[in-house]
C-alpha cells in the first residue's frame, strides 16, 4: 500500500559485531499494567520503544495515570486513575491490552473491556482469565464483543489452570495482590517474564512467591506503593540475533542478555553446528560452516518458544537436510510459510506440522509480514538471500523489535527502512 513503511535488504553479507539487547516486550507490558495498582510513583528502566508499549502508555493515560519520561526512565503515577472502561479501538490495537483486567478489577472492583486485538496467530481466549477471577469472587457477563466484570471484593482461593497460559497467570497474580487472603495458582506459566512481574510487584510491597515454578502463592496486602525497577532483556530479540548470526554465516556478540533464559534456543543452534559461547551477560554466536537441520517442537517455557519458531524455520530453509517443525501453541502460526516459499524455500505444511527441506540459497522477493515474529523471519531470510528482498507491512515488526533494521545495519547488513 502506498505510504506504508517497508524494509529493503540486499542479502549475502555475514553479520559481525556486537549488539545490545533491549528490554523485554513481554515483560514490560504486564509491568506497565501492574503500575495501575500503585498508590505511588513507579520508575521503570530499559523500557523498549515499541508501538505496543506506546499503545499501553496511551491506555494508561486514558485510565487517568500520569505517564512521562525522565531521561531513560519511564515514570508512571496511577494514584489518580479513575476510569474502568477502555475503548474498542485501543483494545483492538494490542493483544496485551487485556492485562489491565486484573489490576483494574482488584483496585476498582469493576471493569469493562472489549476483546483484545493484535497478531492473528491463533485464539487467545479469555476464559482462563475470567474463570480464575470468578473463583476469586468476580461476576462477569459478555455482550456484543465486550465483557463487564465486577466484584464486591476479591477473595484468595486455589486456582488450577487448564493450560499454563502466560496472560491468565499474570492477570490472576495481579488481581490477587490486593485480594483478601491467600491465592494459590497451580499449573501456572513459568516464563521469565512472570518472574520479572513478581519482582516488580514485590518491590511495590506485594507478597508473591513461586514465579518460575508451576505453583505461585500470593498473600493479599492492603495497598501497593511506588518503586524502581529495571526490565529484563528480551529473550526473543536475543534469539532473533542469534539466528541472524547462524543464517548469514556471521559472528555476533550479544550484550545485556540472561543466558539461562535462552537455553532452548542455544541448544537448538548448537545442534545445527553453530558455536555458542556464554560469559556473564553476553553470548557470542559463530555460524557453522554448514548448518544442519534440526527438528523443533514449540512448548510452554522452558520448552522451545513459539515466538522463535518462524525465525528457526528461516534458518532450516537454508540448512542441510530435512527438519520437522511442530507448532503446539498457536494454530495459525504458519502464515510465514507461503512468504518463505516465495523466496524459494522448500516447505510442506500439514496442519500444525511443517516439513522443511533445506535449499542451498534463498532468492530475494517482495514479501509481507503476517505477524510480528513472521516479520522477523522474513528479514532473516532476506539477509541470507541472493538479490534484493522487500519486506512490507512492517508495522507488525515495530510492535516487538526496537530499531531492528538499524541494529542489523550496525552489524554490517545492507538493510534500509523506507518510511514511504
Explain what you see.
Phosphoenolpyruvate binds at residues 25-26. One of its GO terms (cellular component) is cytoplasm. It catalyses: phosphoenolpyruvate + UDP-N-acetyl-alpha-D-glucosamine = UDP-N-acetyl-3-O-(1-carboxyvinyl)-alpha-D-glucosamine + phosphate. There is one protein chain. The protein is built from 14 helices and 23 strands. The relative contact order is 0.16. Strands 21-22-1-23 form a four-stranded mixed beta sheet, covered by helices on one side. The protein is elongated. It has two domains: 6-22 and 233-418, Enolpyruvate transferase domain (UDP-n-acetylglucosamine1-carboxyvinyl-transferase, Chain, Alpha-beta prism); 25-230, UDP-n-acetylglucosamine1-carboxyvinyl-transferase, Chain (Alpha-beta prism). Strand 9, helix 6 (166-177) and strand 10 (182-186) form a beta-alpha-beta unit. The model is unreliable at 118-123 (pLDDT under 50). It has helices at 25-34, 51-62, 88-92, 101-108, 127-135, 166-177, 192-203, 235-247, 263-272, 309-316, 336-342, 372-384, 395-398, 404-410, and strands spanning 6-10, 16-20, 41-45, 66-70, 73-77, 110-114, 138-143, 146-151, 158-160, 182-186, 207-209, 215-219, 227-230, 251-255, 275-279, 282-286, 296-297, 322-326, 346-350, 353-357, 366-368, 388-392, 414-418. The chain starts with 5 loop residues before the first strand and ends with a strand. It has 420 residues and is α+β, with helices and mostly antiparallel strands. Helix 4 runs parallel beside helix 6. Helices cover 31% and strands 25% of the residues.
Amino acid at each position: 500500500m502506498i505510504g506504508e513503511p517497508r524494509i529493503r535488504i540486499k542479502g549475502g553479507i555475514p553479520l559481525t559485531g556486537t549488539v545490545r539487547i533491549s528490554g523485554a516486550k513481554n515483560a514490560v507490558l504486564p509491568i506497565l499494567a501492574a503500575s495501575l495498582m500503585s498508590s505511588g510513583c513507579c520508575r521503570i528502566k530499559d523500557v523498549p520503544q515499541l508501538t505496543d508499549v506506546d499503545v499501553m502508555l496511551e491506555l494508561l493515560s486514558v485510565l487517568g495515570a500520569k505517564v512521562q519520561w525522565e531521561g531513560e526512565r519511564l515514570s508512571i503515577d496511577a494514584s489518580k486513575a479513575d476510569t474502568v472502561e477502555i475503548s474498542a479501538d485501543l483494545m483492538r490495537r494490542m493483544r496485551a491490552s487485556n492485562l489491565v483486567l486484573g489490576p483494574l478489577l482488584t483496585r476498582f472492583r469493576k471493569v469493562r473491556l472489549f476483546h483484545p486485538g493484535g497478531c492473528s496467530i491463533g485464539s487467545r481466549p479469555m476464559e482462563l482469565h475470567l474463570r480464575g477471577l470468578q473463583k476469586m469472587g468476580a461476576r462477569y457477563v459478555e455482550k456484543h464483543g465486550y465483557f463487564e466484570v465486577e466484584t464486591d471484593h476479591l477473595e484468595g482461593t486455589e486456582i488450577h489452570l487448564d493450560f499454563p497460559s502466560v496472560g491468565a497467570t499474570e492477570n490472576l497474580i495481579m488481581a490477587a495482590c490486593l485480594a483478601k487472603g491467600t491465592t494459590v495458582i497451580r499449573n501456572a506459566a513459568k516464563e521469565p517474564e512472570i518472574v520479572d512481574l513478581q519482582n516488580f510487584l514485590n518491590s511495590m510491597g506485594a507478597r508473591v512467591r513461586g514465579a518460575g515454578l508451576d505453583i505461585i502463592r500470593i498473600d493479599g496486602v492492603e495497598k501497593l506503593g511506588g518503586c524502581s525497577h529495571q526490565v529484563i532483556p528480551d529473550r526473543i530479540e536475543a534469539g532473533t540475533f542469534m539466528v541472524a548470526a547462524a543464517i548469514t554465516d556471521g559472528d555476533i556478540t550479544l550484550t545485556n542478555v540472561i543466558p539461562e533464559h535462552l537455553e532452548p534456543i542455544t541448544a537448538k543452534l548448537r545442534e545445527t553446528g553453530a558455536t555458542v559461547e556464554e560469559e556473564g551477560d553476553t553470548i557470542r554466536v559463530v555460524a557453522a560452516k554448514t548448518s544442519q537441520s534440526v527438528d523443533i517442537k514449540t512448548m510452554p517455557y522452558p520448552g522451545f518458544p513459539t515466538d522463535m519458531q518462524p525465525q528457526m524455520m528461516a534458518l532450516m530453509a537454508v540448512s542441510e537436510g530435512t527438519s520437522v517443525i511442530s507448532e503446539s501453541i498457536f494454530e495459525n502460526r504458519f502464515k510465514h510459510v507461503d512468504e518463505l516459499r516465495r523466496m524459494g524455500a522448500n516447505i510442506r505444511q500439514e496442519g500444525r506440522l511443517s516439513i522443511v527441506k533445506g535449499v542451498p540459497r534463498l532468492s530475494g522477493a517482495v514479501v509481507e509480514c503476517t505477524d510480528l515474529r513472521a516479520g522477523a523471519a522474513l528479514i532473516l531470510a532476506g539477509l541470507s538471500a541472493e538479490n534484493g528482498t522487500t519486506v512490507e507491512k512492517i508495522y507488525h515488526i515495530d510492535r516487538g523489535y526496537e530499531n531492528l533494521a538499524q541494529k542489523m545495519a550496525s552489524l554490517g547488513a545492507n538493510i534500509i527502512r523506507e518510511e514511504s
